[in-house]
Design goal:
Helix content is 26%, strand content 30%. By secondary structure, it is α/β, with parallel strands linked by helices. The longest helix has 14 residues.
């Protein structure tokens, strides 16, 4: 079962320094790739010196999140059964992948799953980008279990079982490679943000489903939204 963990990078030297060790420590069965969007901050030199074992996909310009991943994954298409799409500022935990892979093995109709996403700065709370799985309201406004608007709930084990969701977070998404390519990957018009929701909606039209598996846990650096509560 070939599987690739792919991190998109653009001038992200600082998070790579902080979070790559957890990726290497807890992902022994994965081929790890950094797809670089033409960084100018020394990221590639750092990777070559400190983490030569990590595979690199070097793009010639900043294509953004959606097109960057599309181009990177196109270069390894047909080599892997699964892609784990991971933000560079996510900390992995021991055995993060086992519950996700086991669920996909038992549910062939499921295209993608995500772990429970906690805030790296405050592990007692969910993180904005994913929390415990995403939904859309009547007006297609996205929200998550564990996060509504700017408010993130404390994690009190209230969302523990596998739960079908409308969309899985692009910050930490395990997706079948054949399903990613089935619909052409992300829509590059989004550049960054909302692209994973659009991808899941298009795959849902193909009869695919999506789940959050809270037995798998990662923590994400709260970088854009101050939504933690006391």
């Amino acid at each position: 079962m070939a599987q690739a963990l792919v991190i998109l990078n653009y001038n992200g030297l600082s998070p790579l320094e902080k979070y790559l060790p957890s990726v290497l420590d807890y992902s022994p069965n994965w081929d790890i790739y950094i797809a670089d969007n033409a960084s100018t901050d020394g990221s590639l030199d750092f990777l070559k010196e400190k983490f030569p074992q990590i595979k690199r996909i070097e793009l010639n310009q900043n294509f953004g999140f959606a097109a960057g991943y599309n181009k990177a994954l196109k270069t390894i298409q047909d080599q892997y059964e699964f892609y784990f799409i991971l933000n560079s500022d996510v900390r992995l935990s021991p055995n993060w992948d086992t519950p996700l892979l086991e669920f996909l093995a038992a549910h062939p109709e499921t295209a993608a799953v995500q772990p429970k996403v906690l805030a790296d700065r405050q592990h007692t709370h969910f993180e904005h980008a994913g929390a415990a799985g995403g939904y859309l309201d009547t007006f297609y406004f996205p929200f998550c279990r564990g996060r509504i608007m700017h408010v993130c709930e404390p994690d009190q084990l209230q969302y523990q079982g596998p739960q079908q969701v409308t969309w899985t977070s692009g910050a930490a998404m395990l997706i079948r490679a054949q399903d990613f390519h089935l619909v052409g990957g992300f829509d590059a018009q989004f550049f960054a943000h909302m692209e994973e929701i659009d991808l899941c909606l298009r795959l849902a039209k193909e009869g695919k489903s999506f789940y959050c598996i809270p037995a798998a846990v990662v923590s994400f650096l709260l970088s854009r939204f101050d939504c933690l509560v006391d």
